[in-house]
Amino acid sequence: MAYQATRPRISPENVSFAPGPGVAVELQKHLDDRTLPERDRRFAEDLLRAYRNGGCTGPQWDWIGKLCARAQAAIQAKAGPAPQATLDNVSGIIDLVERARDKLNFPKLRFDVAFEGRYTTIKLNVAGAKARVPGSLTVVAEPEGQESHWIGRILRDGRIQVSKPYHSPAWMQAFTATLHALSADPIKFATAYGRRTGNCIFCDIELSDERSKHVGYGRKCAKNYNLPWGDRPTTPEF
Q1: Strands across the sheet with 118-126, in order?
Q2: What residues contact residue 18 under an 8 Å CB cut-off, 6+ apart?
Q3: 161: number of Cβ within 10 Å
Q4: pTM of the model
Q5: Structural domain boundaries, residue 34
Q6: What is the pLDDT of residues 136-161, one digit of tens each?
Q7: Last residue of a domain, one of 42, 77, 112
Q8: C-beta neighbour count of 211 within 10 angstroms
Q9: Which end of the chain is more exposed for a tag (fewer CB within 10 A), N or C?
């Protein structure tokens, strides 16, 4: 069979990738995991053989990127329905954020979720009137060294909706556990977060005053969110 006969009949996709060993390794992994659609496997094997035997041409690198994109699309298509999760007291979180509505244009909470040995910073704010779901809590991830991106939303009835990349049951378990702790007692959570990280949950600024470290948030944010501030710790805090 001629080489051209093995080329799958797919239209070129608009794929952004960096030609090199990384994308070749990714394509090999899709072959090994059988996540690449069956009709593309023969062509992928030919491309990887060319890579191992001296390197790929520009068009071959283009096809490697396209096949990786097709494999990722196949994985997402099999992801199944979004996991279901709800919060019992989402109103407590919304009330805490909304305390500063008359003082700040965009009041928000910023905290982290522990997952697979690392922390992912999460930002919550109440969606405005022009948003797709006004009044819901918008959830944004701010990974270290990466651009922030939308994860999903928390509806007023407590339902949690997340985008496909976050449908992992393990991630949802870690995420909802953190949200349950926040919703159970938002002010207690804010204090614990500030004491643990040394940063304010509202503005993310490092806490320096011992009174701020004691309550877990700064003097200005305490005023904005109508929270108690000023007591000094009676015993050393570690």
Answers
A1: 109-115, 118-126, 137-142, 149-154, 160-162
A2: none
A3: 15
A4: 0.63
A5: 3-77
A6: 999 999 877 677 889 899 999 999 99
A7: 77
A8: 15
A9: C
